């Protein structure tokens, strides 16, 4: 029996639309990610049960759960290599809200595939399971992209490459950054967030996007946190998506007033992130968001650091 864990992630990070993502972990040690417990089963195939804070947000039919789809795709991949999949039971602890901008679907996908590969003695290997994770995520979002999957699996701050067989590469992140991550409790679907974007961009914004991303990557490698923070500006998605998130503009203004290095939309929303060097100011931002940004009982806010471990599986009794 194994337990697999996959952390929450923030994609895009303002400066890297579809190309950057960071795994997050609360500094207070609380759980911010999905878990899978997998065990051999007498029932043919795979059966799935769901627990956790956001279990009620998922389809009631287990066969519509992405975890079940992960089993089918993993089984097919094994069979193509002449291997046989075990019959298993998977219990998903759904701790991340769906359509939240925290990589919820990626966390379920990554945890499921990591658990499946663990119980099959790592039969597929890293490259194949990451490609499998991308394909599963693509089923949900409509296209294969790794800006949540890669940080969720590998941990850290990931730059999506997708060239010459390299899916992503780890960028150095900054130890002195505190990431305030807040889910307001409302959903913004990835498809709706993409539909609101223009079909083309003018030359000025295209150049600005490339310049900012290149500068950010350079600053990460040179350890220049001030330069990195200075280009955390979104000219691609945020100008259009901000209207989908009530209170976002006010939250960004408040963050700026107390010294935030940057405040942006996490993924396609509705979650937001705000970066600080000072923990006291990060906690002030957390208090503000809890009082003024969270809309209902589903919302939550954490002060985080980058989770450099990423997903993992461990044997349990």
TrEMBL record:
It is found in: Cytoplasm. The keyword Hydrolase does not apply. ATP binds at residues 97-107. Residues 219-294 form the GHMP kinase C-terminal domain. One of its GO terms (molecular function) is homoserine kinase activity. It catalyses: L-homoserine + ATP = O-phospho-L-homoserine + ADP + H(+). Residues 65-156 form the GHMP kinase N-terminal domain. Its EC number is 2.7.1.39. Keywords: Amino-acid biosynthesis, ATP-binding, Cytoplasm, Kinase, Nucleotide-binding, Threonine biosynthesis, Transferase. Signal peptide: none annotated. Pathway: Amino-acid biosynthesis; L-threonine biosynthesis; L-threonine from L-aspartate: step 4/5. Belongs to the GHMP kinase family. Homoserine kinase subfamily. Catalyzes the ATP-dependent phosphorylation of L-homoserine to L-homoserine phosphate. This is Homoserine kinase. It comes from Succinivibrio faecicola. The lineage of its organism: Bacteria, Pseudomonadati, Pseudomonadota, Gammaproteobacteria, Aeromonadales. The gene is thrB.
């Amino acid at each position: 029996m194994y337990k697999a864990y996959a952390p929450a992630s923030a994609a895009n990070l303002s400066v890297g639309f579809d190309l950057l993502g960071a795994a997050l972990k609360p500094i207070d040690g609380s759980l911010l990610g999905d878990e899978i417990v997998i065990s051999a089963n007498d029932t043919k195939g795979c059966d799935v049960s769901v627990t956790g804070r956001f279990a009620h947000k998922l389809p009631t039919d287990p066969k519509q759960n992405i975890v079940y789809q992960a089993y089918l795709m993993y089984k097919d991949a094994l069979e193509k290599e002449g291997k046989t999949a075990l019959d298993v039971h998977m219990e998903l602890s759904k701790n991340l809200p769906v359509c939240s901008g925290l990589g919820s679907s990626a966390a379920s996908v990554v945890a499921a595939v990591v658990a499946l590969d663990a119980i099959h003695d790592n039969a597929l290997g890293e490259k194949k399971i990451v490609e499998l994770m991308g394909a599963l995520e693509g089923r949900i979002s409509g296209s294969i992209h790794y800006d949540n999957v890669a940080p969720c699996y590998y941990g850290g701050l990931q730059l999506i490459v997708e060239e010459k067989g390299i899916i992503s590469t780890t960028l150095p992140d900054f130890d002195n950054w505190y990431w305030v991550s807040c889910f307001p409790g409302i959903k913004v679907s990835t498809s709706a967030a993409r539909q609101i974007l223009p079909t083309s961009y003018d030359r000025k914004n295209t150049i600005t996007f490339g310049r900012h991303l290149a500068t950010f990557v350079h600053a990460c490698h040179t350890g220049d946190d001030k330069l990195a923070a200075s280009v955390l500006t979104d000219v691609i998605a945020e100008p259009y998506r901000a209207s989908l998130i009530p209170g976002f503009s006010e939250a960004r203004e408040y963050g700026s007033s107390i010294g935030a290095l940057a405040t942006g939309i996490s993924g396609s929303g509705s979650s937001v992130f705000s970066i600080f060097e000072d923990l006291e100011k990060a906690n002030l931002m957390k208090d503000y968001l809890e009082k003024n940004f969270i809309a209902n009982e589903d919302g939550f806010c954490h002060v985080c650091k980058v989770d450099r471990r990423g997903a993992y599986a461990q044997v349990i009794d």
